[in-house]
Amino acid sequence: MAAPAAAQGIPATMQGVEARKLFGAVSTGSPHRADAFGSYAKGCGAGLVQLPENGATWQAMRLSRNRNWGTPELVDYLQDLSKDAARLPGWNGIYVGDMSQPRGGPMSSGHASHQIGLDADIWMLPGTDLRLSRNARENLSSISLRRGNGAYVNGNWTAQHMELLKAAASDRRVARIFLFPGAKAWMCDNATGDRRWLRKIRPWWGHHYHFHVRLSCPRGMKGCVDQAPPPPGDGCDEARKWVSDIVNPPPPDPNAPAPTPRRQLTMEDLPRQCVTVLQSR
After folding, report:
1. 52: which of 61, 120, 132, 270 lies 20 to 30 Å off by Cα?
2. Where are the alpha helices (DSSP H) in the chain?
3. CA torsion sign, 225 to 227 to 229 to 231?
4. Is the whole model's pTM more than 0.85, yes or no?
5. Which pLDDT value is given to residue 8?
6. How crowded is residue 62: how many other Cβ atoms within 10 Å of its Cβ?
7. What pLDDT score does 2 carry?
8. Could you give the CA distance from residue 38 to residue 274 in angstroms, rounded to a whole number?
9. Which residues fall within 8 angstroms of residue 116, CB to CB, at 6 or more apart?
10. Which residues, including other chains, have CB under 8 Å from residue 232's CB and lie 6 or more apart?
């Protein structure tokens, strides 16, 4: 089926309803060609496909969440990355965490982004056992690599983690990778040779049990809103500034406005194509 055109209006049953409740209630993808509408944190996905639960070099985790969906480009990317991981000492592949819901959109918990089928979380736990049962995948946990509240890596960090991140970031399909600051700073201090891949790895809070891969909008998906490219350079000065601020926090700004609670998105906030994505059977 062709991609959905923009809907003229929002059905009364959807008006004012939190979009996360509507998208979270759908268990299958929409019957359209693959397309992404809106931005990573305000959109939906048509024709998303499911990453198979098991592969020769990957396993999808937390299957009960039904979040192992993405554009075909994301599924292909993850399968390619898993083969890179399988060549690393001590790894047989990767454990894939949250991608997107079957039709994208806001999630009930855990993420503000992951809405258009172009984001995925890769566990830091080496994928050694790729025959985990469904029950094991609900209960097994990843490992944290951070120390000092994210300023440094801990003893779980290995050279193989850097090699996997290098492979992940070197792929032309990738827009950004989010990772805790101490890991980026460690790689800045230890990476040799061509360092251009470091530019795509950006420090962000959390992201020490997994790293977050974000793909650029695929060619032809005109409704997809790309993130701005990372600033020029390798981003190492920025990472070191994050580390410095963690170790020696700057004094609070007495004039800073109070944080505004995040409002839950409704269908009115999303591209109109998302109405058709939700309604299609």
Report:
1. 270
2. 19-24, 72-86, 134-139, 159-170, 181-190, 236-247, 273-279
3. positive
4. yes
5. 57
6. 19
7. 67
8. 9
9. 36, 37, 38, 39, 40, 43, 44, 45, 71, 100, 104, 224
10. 199
Q: Is the dihedral of CA 40, 232, 212, 130 positive or negative?
A: positive
Closest CA to 197 of 217, 229, 171: 171
Q: Residue 268: which residues within 8 A CB-CB, separation 6 or more?
A: 10, 15, 16
Q: Position of tokens 């075909």?
A: 72
Reported as a single tens digit per residue, the pLDDT across 119-136 is: 999 999 999 999 999 999
CA distance 159 to 35: 37
- Who's near 18: CB < 8 A, 6+ residues apart? 106, 264, 265, 266
pLDDT for position 5: 60
Distance of CA 97 to the CA centre of its chain: 9
| Cα–Cα dist 210/218, whole Å | 24
Cα–Cα distance, 116 to 103 (Å, whole number): 8
Amino acid at 149: N
Backbone angles phi, psi at 269, to 5 degrees: -85, -15
Q: Which residues of the chain are modeled with pLDDT < 70? A: 1-3, 5-8
- Return the DSSP state at 208: S
Q: How far apart are CA 62 and CA 68, in angstroms?
A: 9
